[in-house]
Amino acid sequence: MNAADVNWVSDNSDTAAKDGPKVAFLWGGTEAGQLNGSYIKLPAHFSGSIHSRGTQFGAVVIKGQLTHAATDEPLAPGSYFSSKEATLHQVQTNESEVVLYVRANGKYDIAVE
What we know:
Layout: E1 9-10, E2 22-28, E3 35-42, E4 47-52, E5 56-63, E6 66-68, E7 74-75, E8 80-83, E9 87-93, E10 98-105, E11 108-112
Antiparallel strand pairs: 1-2, 2-3, 3-10, 4-9, 4-11, 5-8, 5-10, 6-7, 6-9
């Protein structure tokens, strides 16, 4: 798939505004137990959480810088965070948007603080 053909949609959080978090589903299914891959786009100055609900969750920073509460240090492109159970990942972005590649087993939700 060409990057220009990625279909970004508003996530299922209570901030479905045009400048809120976006998700692009790439492959697989989001049902419980289904392995899937997607992109998450977080706007500049985002503060909130990504709640993984499955048994595996991994996110790689593709673009921008993200701070994960577990380390409280900026994660540059190529950095990642993960979990092997349902986990609430508290994250923040700085002045620029962040794009993550996510590989998950099941669903995840994005919430704005």
